[in-house]
Amino acid sequence: MRRPLISDEWMREFHCPESTGFRDGIMLSPLTFCGALEEFYKSIAKGWNNETREKYDRDFNNVILPHIEHHNEKIISAYTKEDCEKTLKGIREDGYLSRGQKKEYSETQMNHFKYLIYWVFRNVAMAGYCQDFLWGTKFEINMEREELAIRSKTQIKRSLSVEQEKRLTEEIMNDPREDGKRIALILMFALGLRDGEACGLDFGDIYELPYYRGCYVAIIKQSTIPKTSKLQSSGKTWNSGRRIPIPQKVAEFLLERRAIVSDLIEKKNLDLDTSRIPVAGDGYIEEDTVELATRLRADKVAEEARIVFRQVGIESEVLASLEIEMEEEVARLEVSERSVTAYLLRRNFATHLKILGLDYPDIQYLLGHCIEDPYIDRPDYTDNKLYMLSEKMKYRPLVNGPMKKEETIPCFSERIFPGKMKLTIQNEGQALRIKIYALEKNDPLKIRVNPEELENQQIRCSEDFQPYELSRTINVIQKYQEGYEKTTKKKRR
Fold it and tell me: Domain boundaries in the chain?
């Protein structure tokens, strides 16, 4: 196959100290974008006929290459997604001349240029000369937005599957010493945090609610400034500040991580306050780790997420379509999401909250959105309210322990539970009034009291009519739990 018809004005190689050796598993090379295009042209142009090759060569030579900033002084491994986006932006803004008049490229043409850029970096990445940084991005989608919108609604899943969630939790929640980037992913998956909020969370922001033993919450009050490790108040509006109940398994995991950090500070005699140490610090915690207070950058979390998502079987097309969707929704979002990682995991978190029966204002509060209900304010989310939310959220699988079939509860408490449950009521001999009712209309209730466990105390039962109000939600928790149990059983076989 012939070489591409590219002008000699474009450098093929740029020699510098960073153009030799290995870095992060990448074989460094002096090849520029043009040099890489020629080097891997056979695989890039595979399937193109002569007419197509000539047309695409002109597109590279006359449109793409002139818009790549610092092309002649940049090696192929130094490129980022932002460089590619700048190239496309320049192409769109400059347009082209037709009969002396400036015209804009159509969406079809822009989509074509985007895909040509992707195909070069894709082949170069497969050869090991650069990171596959365009995987799971809009550059991978070679179709019109209208076509993509239809396909997204009918074929592309909007949240993680049960199997993907299981593989994700196994991947990122197996070691409390884990690299901070993966700890940030835990916080995003389990608490619905934005990437900057996950980086901004300190150990002092995690505490146990007074009078509610075992109920831990995270205070979300700060986040990192994009592409830096510097802190700012969380989000762009006061709505972003909030307290989020932490699932049981995640709370235990984070408390163990905090204990490891505290022990290391004491052992190394470091002048550090554990409460001011970031939960998702930069790096893995080892015995010789001393820079525990180094805060992570949100863009590093996004890079790690792409690696992890690939490992757990999340399709690149899902991420690519979500990126396009996210860009289109930015104008309508109160606080724009800056990464597909946050967009996907927060969306997945919201899906779980809906299944668990949380009201819409509660979901808005937990996500840090403006509460649209005029009768509910953010100060309404007191300790008691948060505890009640945690009681609903404890039935989310994977991040909580297995569903209890027997539970001891204190007086004056409220419980929501699916299926069968044995309840032991804590009291000190005083008279109790217990109300039990179904969440769904016409659902049967079967209640059995064991007289032998009541030490001859009198029991009086009565049945009354419970006015039914139409609910916006349907209780599907039992079926929801069973879906995860079935997956676990299949895996064991």
Answer: 17-134, 162-393, 405-493
Beta strands in 225-307 (DSSP E): 231-233, 242-245
Do β-strands 206-208 and 26-27 pair in parallel, antiparallel, or remain unpaired?
A: unpaired
Direct distance between the N- and C-terminal alpha carbons of the chain, in angstroms, rounded to an integer: 51
Q: Which residues contact 376 (CB under 8 A, 6 or more apart)?
A: 361
Beta bridge partners of 295: 281
Report the sign of the C-alpha dihedral through residues 275, 279, 283, 287, in that order: positive
CATH architecture entry for 162-393: Orthogonal Bundle (1.10)
Amino acid at 383: D
Q: Are 135 and 310 in contact (CB under 8 A)?
A: yes
Whole-Å CA distances, 428 to 116, 213, 425, 489: 75, 19, 10, 42
Tell me the mean pLDDT per 10 residues along the chain, length 493: 81 93 90 96 92 94 96 96 96 92 92 94 95 90 59 61 94 95 97 96 97 95 92 68 96 97 94 96 90 92 93 88 75 58 93 93 94 92 95 93 72 67 74 74 76 66 63 66 69 52
Q: Which residue type occupies 428?
A: E
